[in-house]
């Protein structure tokens, strides 16, 4: 009959479970959800990695990273101004090196007039307040695409560290506020700290790529800096095995003892456990790098209409904060900063 099928709201609301604690109560309205929110993303959490290329008033798209472009130095200065006005604290610089300038030893890394050094000077002059972070590694400069010196099939540790030290000093001289060794050689943090201090650059920070994994998620980045076509083999003898977790604690212990001011976990989202482990164990600044492949996945799925790109972007970045990251390197930085500004 009619009464049996007539389900009234009030009947639905009748409590049938005896629950003193109902977590949903705090989620019932926006005002309440805002009050109990544990983490928030702010513009101060963002580091924007940018790609540099030769030329003037020149920008070229990176095919595997829709929305990301390589920028000539003058264009990079313009973007640095925009980033500063948005409140983004820092940029990380990555050069696309003219393939003609690549050689086995990565000599161009030691050229004070190379693309990164010129960009450092130009941006520092125009936008002194923005933090400038440089990658210390040889991969943009070597003909074989590796981060270090290759002897036969081996990446030689100690000789590489010597070269990286000179690269870091050059970056500091050109205006880098922080150098970020991403090469994963043993002992490089201590060697760079010692050399910076001896050069009276105790002010230059070292942001160590502490837990950097041999990852498939770097693919689009290698397109962006022109390494994918030249790289011989893989980087598994120096970057970490994705299967490992305790090993990152050893890397962190060493990096901190050698003088690292901050640590980076890279890639980001597949390694949130490492962000959390490093943060809780050491209680020191931990940054996550949302790498090129993560950016590409979100962007590609959004372009296909398969996910809401905007929401996935914000959710992925908030997840880094929840895991314990103090800041995030992300190619979404300017888009997110604009969005946060609009409120
Ligand atoms: C290499 C370097 C890499 C990235 C930053 N520095 C790639 C690699 O190790 O091959 C990757 C960043 C990204 O994928 O966004 N020194």
Specify the structural class: alpha/beta
N-to-C SSE string, H for helix and E for strand: HHHEEEHEHEEEHEHEHHEHEHHEH
Which ligands are bound? ligand PBG
Radius of gyration over alpha carbons? 23 Å
Percentage of residues in helical conformation = 40-55%
CATH class: Alpha Beta
Tally of DSSP helical segments: 13
The termini sit apart by 53 Å
So what's the oligomer here? single chain
CATH architecture: Alpha-Beta Barrel
Quote the CATH topology. Answer: TIM Barrel
According to DSSP, the number of beta strands is 12
The number of distinct structural domains comes to 1
Strand order of the largest sheet: 1-4-5-8-9-10-11-12
Mean of pLDDT: 96
Spatial shape: globular
Stretches where pLDDT is under 50 for at least 5 consecutive residues are none
Major beta sheet summary? 8 strands, parallel, barrel
Question: In words, what does this structure look like?
Answer:
With 343 residues, the chain is of the alpha/beta class. The chain has one domain: Aldolase class I (TIM Barrel), CATH 3.20.20. The protein has 13 helices and twelve strands. It has an eight-stranded parallel barrel with strand order 1-4-5-8-9-10-11-12, surrounded by nine helices. Strands 6-7 form a two-stranded antiparallel sheet. A hairpin with a 7-residue loop joins strand 2 and strand 3. Helix 11 packs antiparallel against helix 12. The longest helix is centred in the middle third of the chain and has 18 residues. The radius of gyration is 23 Å and the shape is globular. Bound molecules: ligand PBG. Ligand PBG binds next to helix 8. Belongs to the ALAD family. It is an enzyme of class 4 (lyase).
